[in-house]
C-alpha cells in the first residue's frame, strides 16, 4: 500500500483501473482489471462489481464514487458498461473511454447492443477493449479509429436481398463492385 499523502496524486498515463460489462442481473460478461492493487482475486472483483451494480443499476446518473474509485457507466437494453478510474481521475477522460467503447461495440453489433449479440461477438469485444486501453493507458478514444484498427468494415454490409438478386440475375459487375467497397 502507498502511504497517504495530503498532496494530490501525481498525473499518470495509467488512467483506467478496470473496465467491465454486466448484464441486467449483475452477472459479469466482460471484465479487465489493469491496476494490480485493485481487487486482486476473482472473489474481490465480483464483490466490487456487485457493489457497483447495486449502486448504479437503477440510477439515472452517469457517474458514481465507490470504494475510493470514480466509476462512469452507461446502460443499453440489457447491458451495463463500466469504466473505473482512481478517485482523483478526470471524469471526462473516463467518459470518453466509455463512449468510445459503447460506440465501437454499437457499430460492430450493428446497433444491437444487447446481451445475446455481445456474447456472439466476444472476440470483437475483446479486440475493441484492447485497442482502446492497454495496461490502463488510454490508447484511443475515437470509435472510427478503433474500428479501423480491429479491421472491421466501416461501410455497411450489402443487404442479402441485393446479393441474392445479383446472383440470380447474373449481374456479376454489381457483386464485384460491392466486394471492392468492403
Describe this structure in words.
It contains 7 helices and 7 strands, in the order ββαβββαααββααα. It is of the alpha+beta class and 182 residues long. Strands 2-1-5-4-3 form a 5-stranded antiparallel β-sheet, sandwiched between helices. The longest helix is centred in the middle third of the chain and has 18 residues, at 91-108.
Summary of the model, kept short:
The chain is 42% helix and 21% strand. It has helices at 42-56, 91-108, 115-120, 122-132, 143-149, 160-169, 172-181; strands at residues 16-23, 28-33, 63-66, 69-76, 79-86, 133-134, 137-138. α2 (91-108) packs across α5 (143-149).
- How many runs of DSSP E, i.e. beta strands? 7
Instruction: Kindly provide the radius of gyration, computed on alpha-carbon positions and rounded to a whole number of angstroms.
Output: 20 Å
- By DSSP (H or I, 4+ residues per run), the number of helices equals 7
- Residue stretches low in confidence (pLDDT < 50, at least 5 long) are 153-162, 174-182
Succession of helices and strands: EEHEEEHHHEEHHH
Shape: globular
- Spatial order of the strands forming the largest sheet: 2-1-5-4-3
Largest sheet: 5 strands, antiparallel
Helix content: 40-55%
Briefly note the structural class of the backbone.
alpha+beta
End-to-end Cα distance:
51 Å
* Average of the residue pLDDT scores: 80
Strand content: 15-25%
Amino acid at each position: 500500500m502507498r502511504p497517504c499523502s495530503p498532496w494530490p496524486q501525481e498525473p499518470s498515463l495509467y488512467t483506467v483501473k478496470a473496465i467491465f460489462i454486466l448484464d441486467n442481473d449483475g452477472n459479469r460478461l466482460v471484465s479487465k482489471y489493469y491496476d494490480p492493487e485493485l481487487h486482486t482475486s476473482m472473489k474481490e472483483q465480483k464483490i466490487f462489481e456487485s457493489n457497483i451494480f447495486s449502486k448504479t443499476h437503477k440510477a439515472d446518473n452517469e457517474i458514481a464514487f465507490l470504494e475510493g474509485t470514480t466509476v462512469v457507466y452507461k446502460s443499453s437494453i440489457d447491458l451495463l458498461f463500466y469504466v473505473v478510474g482512481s478517485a482523483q481521475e478526470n471524469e471526462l477522460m473516463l467518459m470518453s473511454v466509455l463512449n468510445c467503447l459503447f460506440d465501437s461495440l454499437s457499430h460492430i453489433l450493428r446497433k444491437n447492443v444487447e446481451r445475446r449479440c455481445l456474447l456472439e461477438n466476444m472476440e470483437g469485444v475483446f479486440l475493441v477493449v484492447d485497442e482502446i486501453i492497454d495496461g490502463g493507458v488510454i490508447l484511443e478514444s475515437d470509435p472510427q479509429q478503433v474500428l479501423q484498427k480491429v479491421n472491421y468494415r466501416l461501410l455497411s454490409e450489402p443487404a442479402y436481398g441485393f446479393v441474392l438478386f445479383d446472383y440470380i440475375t447474373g449481374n456479376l459487375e454489381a457483386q464485384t463492385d460491392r466486394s471492392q467497397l468492403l
